Amino acid sequence: MNKDSILFALNSLRARKLRSWLTMLGIFIGIAAVVALIGLGEGLRTTVVSQFGFLGSDILSVQASGIDFAGPPGQAVSNPLTTELGDKIERVRGVEAAIDRYIETGALEFNDQQHINVITSVPEGEQRKIFQEMLNLKAKTGRLLEDHDDRRILLGHDYSDDDVFAKPVEEGNRIVVNDREFEVVGILEKKGSFIYDHSAFINEDVLLDMFDSNVDIIAVKVKDATDIDDVTLEIEQLLRKERDVKEGEEDFRVDSPKGLLESLNSTLFTVQLFVSIIAAISLLVGGIGITNTMYTAVLERTREIGIMKSVGAKKSTIFTLFFVEAGLLGMVGGLIGILLGLIMAYGLAGVGRAVLGSELIQADVSIFLIIGSLAFSFFLGTVAGVLPAFQASRLQPVDALRERK
Amino acid sequence: MSTVNLGALLYALRNVLHRKMRSGLTIVSVFIGVTAIFTLLSFGIGIQSYVEQIAEEAGADKLFIQAKGIGAPGTDATFFVSNEDIDFIEDINGVSEVAGMYLKAAEIEFKDKKRINFIVGIDVDNLDFIEEAMLVEILKGRSLKKGDTDKAVLGYNYQIENKIFARALDVGDKIIINDAPVEIVGFYDEIGNPSDDANIYVTNDMMEQLYPDIKNRFGHAIMRADKGVDANELADRIQEKLRKFKNQEEGKEDFFVQTFSDVLATFGSIILVINGVLVLIALVSVAVASVNIMNTMYTAVLERTKEIGVMKAIGAQNKEILFIFVFESGLLGLIGGAVGVVFGMINASIGGAIAASAGFASLQPAFPVVLIVGCLLFAFLLGVVAGLLPARQASQLKPVEALRYE
After folding, report:
1. A405 interaction partners in chain B (CB closer than 8 Å)
2. Integer Cα distance of B6 and B149 in angstroms
3. Does A15 touch chain B (CB under 8 A)?
4. What is the mean pLDDT of residues B186-202?
5. For A8-56, how does the pLDDT look when each residue is reduced to its tens digit (9 = 90+)?
6. Terminal Cα-to-Cα distance of chain A (whole angstroms)
7. How far apart (Å, rounded) are the C-alpha atoms in residues B224 and B43?
8. Chain A residue with the nearest C-alpha to that of B213
9. What residues of A are in contact with residue B79 (Cβ under 8 Å)?
10. B199 at interface of A, judged by CB pairs closer than 8 A
């Protein structure tokens, strides 16, 4: 044993350490990318979905079918709903109230600026209270609308910031909607929904006087939330009869908030899945790196394996040895990757919020994602190690011992 | 030098072939990433060139005027373009043609089956211009003409079986639009997306008959600039003149004027950004592949330490050793890239076929030479860069120590 040979041994060890690190680097780049992307996607999905999530579980919405994605509800439809239909729905068993909703777009003018936004009707009389409960409308300043508020308007929370009209709108201010002047009666509490926080509310009769409008949505409140599926079926049956359409040919839709959320969720999920798959390609590449490293390790340690076998190591022992080594490579890489991914997800979300000024950009790395990634990286390592470990376990002791590197 | 290099090339090639398993796996890891990137880019380029083609065919002389509002043009009844506006625009210097367009969601019935699709009103006095602007051509039958108040031209998808209706419609068939019987006189050729290919086209007179309350309330109008007139300059001029004509203050207009090129450029840049983000994500896998290459090369250097010692002992210079390993590494990248390009082409073609069968005939990949050569070059450079450190290590080995290495 001279100094040089020790040096060489150290050198080769260092080389092997380098190889292990590089292999893990491949895994952790991939895991970091996947964790960061899924985390950001989840956060975005949660916030987008929460925009609609405030609707109660005892509410149904009835709409005429139209062309999707062509604008706000009720816009691109051919056979609109009618007030008579609303009255009939109200008489369906289990229905507490059916409220006709009119949604229009109007040009709002204030502070010498004009913005096109959604104007929503608020029904009169008894239905007013139900409607306000339904949408959970609460005034932050001022009050909600009352009957005979002919020249008064209620505004969503965002108007009280300076981001709509460059100057906050306050209770008592005058605002012009399609050439008609209104007094701001109150500003609503923040809902966290872009659509509602940007909406303006006026009384139904005022809206109908200003716009030539059809019923866009009939909002139905059921008496007992547990009956909601039965009530949905009954309303569907009623509408089929009233609108003279066959089952499967409906020109209307009855949605529960749950159903709407589900469809929105699944759309967003598809996008997220696509992006994640592209990111996951890097994991596949990382896995190939592990396979490669393990084949090399088997090759290098052929003599070692021969010795182990000749002193009685079983095939399964040798297999487990290499199999676990590969799994460890994966898992340690995964661990570092998760840490890096967490930093990236929250860091990017923070940067995104600061740059774009949108609260929508959030990261949400769940414990499930962390554990899942860790398990997956271990799994990836073991799968990648199966073939090399198998090869190692099948070596003949005599051949292996004779092997000269 | 050139003979040395040729020798080095052969040596590198032999080594790559010799360590079949390891080289193979390394190449696989490169080709997976290159396949993904090639596929994504070919679609990005395909869509870009489609947009450019539309811009070219529709011409740089077209403009839009659209009423403000939320949603598709014409579906929001609060704001509209009126006949007076159109007459006014027609008299503006530099405007050659103007056509008001109606757009509504209509219920179309055929053999008791109902569908809801867009119905487009066409000003038959400007038929050629409108067809040119909408990039539609008659496939079967004839175009609309004056006096067609119970006739319609249908989008491409109607004459395909099981696309919109179970039966393929033909010229002469009768359909019902909002309870009024209508005869089909023709079909337009494929536009390439399911929404436009499901449109129904009728004359403006018929639109007003079907929907009396939209009369004189156009959702948008299309215009053509006179020859030699700059469309962007004209757009600004129309915006200002119409604003004054309608007595609206600046910034409070209830309409906006845009050139076709602007609209397409906006669309194109959105596509570019989405494509760019996806390619960036796919680049992660290439980064991992480069780590794999580096690993393979470090191993190769280690295994061939003695060989390097021999080469050095008989006079090989540091830079020659460096070249040998860098080239070997680049070769790994290049082969991976070549396989990746081939698989990327197959992949993208399959994707394009799926898109076409789903009605998105406009969503097709493109394989320009630049893309192919670019991907190959990129993969080669990736290998070279990944091989630099291992090659440097190899080149700096001391001959005596390397020779002694077991």
Report:
1. 406
2. 79
3. yes
4. 89
5. 555 655 667 788 888 888 888 999 999 998 898 888 888 777 666 556 6
6. 20
7. 31
8. A212
9. 105, 107, 116
10. no
